[in-house]
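> tool_call: predict_assembly(chains=two)
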Amino acid sequence: MLFPTLSFGLFFLLVYAVTWSVRGSNEWRKILLLLASWIFYGAWDWRFVALLIGSAFLNWGAARLIVLQPEEAQRRRKAILIAGIAGNLMILGFFKYYDFFLEQLGDVLAMAGLARDLPMMQVVLPVGISFFTFQGMSYLADVHARRLAPAALLDVTLLMSFFPHLVAGPIVRGSDLLPQFRETPRLTREMATMGLILIVWGLFKKAVVASELSTGLVDPVFFDPGAHSRLDLIAAAYGYAVQIYCDFSAYSDMAIGIAALLGYRFPLNFNQPYRALSLQDFWRRWHISLSSWLRDYLYIGALGGNRKGFRRQCVNLMATMLLGGLWHGAKWTFVIWGGLHGLVLAMERIWDRYRPDGWPRLPRILALLLTFHIVVVGWIFFRSDSFTQAAIYLGGIVHGGQASAVMTPLAVALIFLGMAIHFTPPQMGQRLALTLRGLPAPALGMIAGITILIIDAMRFEGVAPFIYYQF
Amino acid sequence: MPHETPSPLDLPEPDLEDGSGLGWTSGVIAVAALLLLLTNAVSLRDWINEQPPGPLQARASALADGWVAFTDGIGWGKPRAMLHEQWKRAEGARFPSNEDQPAADQR
């Protein structure tokens, strides 16, 4: 059930009406939201609802066991934490990486002259597994570190299953959502107005900008980069940068907006990422819930961050980004993408440390352009099916011809629009919400209806799944 | 409630505190839904036609066809049709240098 479809719209209207009708009992409200979340998830594959429930039980049980240990039993508490995290990683590893690692093992054995038929299983990837396992692990780590009190089974299950963020984030941490579950939510005009703005804005970015660029420009060029000119390859690389931003940020916007209409507050996940002046800055603006997760639990929590010296800090950065790349999927192109980001992040740190005194910093515009183009090169690996395809793509940019076969005025306009979004004043949406919240309901309803009508008239026939569904 | 992380829902001014949030929001949603039902009947019909065939779907499809004919008859479907036509024209536009090229996506 995709957000920008009528099926989801009708499902949401029903959930909205039912959950707000039981305002008297917060527990019943949460039970209804949980059932709705399982129906939402079951619309893809009912078998994986059991996996979702099992995963919630695992994290709830492990957290309970941790807090049941006496204060002085630090080693036992840590052992339970490690066992719980290992359980989550085994779920993720089996469903997402089993066949990939077996393929690599097969290649290594073949190179060593020990080729074997390995038991490949063609494992079906449950939608959103990377998101809910990361959410479960952060809950466990927070309870272990006493940053978070253990929650009731219902709350932990709802934290991991709550349908607005279930399949493509944001990765909402327990510390953000569990305190909200303990109180009966309240819907204010401000939350509702901002929520509606985010839903409509997300709908536009996904159904119009991302879908149009994907179908008209990016997909045909990336399908066969060798058959396209330099101009097409460059346009499709910029087009993909805009497409993936408009696609993924649209999901986050709609998730935040939908949760807001149900009375819950989700954190910011994107903040005009292509106006970043360095790659470090980029990761403070792009998929913020994942980058802050990797920073807090992997880079600092597990690897030690910068506590073990500068050289180790650079190695930790690289390791974090390589694993962050692998998180996106079981493909070497994702690892290369993560490695590129890790390498540039480490180089930025080295340059900051060893830059000769008196050397000027790059002007802001050059820093912005340099950062953006490093990100675009990374996206070529991210989008390509294989390393060979990415190499052909990059080679074509250098050696390809000039004539364009696929660029259209509309695609160019949408690329410019996608970039222009990044240079609008900060908090423009919030300012608009402050203006609209004072309108009578029929007036805002008319505005919302007309805007959705315009978007629906522009949208591409059929909606492709969000890019991040595959992760 | 204090929050650890920023959210787009945090507005730079205090809430109105008039306590009418739920009723007001429900009104907004109801008016928007009604407007779309009147002006975007083709989307409803297309969605119904995509559902698995059966007696209920066939009945709903017939009702939706009737609803589209009714809203078109009173002119409520016209704005969407005109906008869609304009958008298709924009999609079909080509640069002078590749006007002879077919659309890349074979739409």
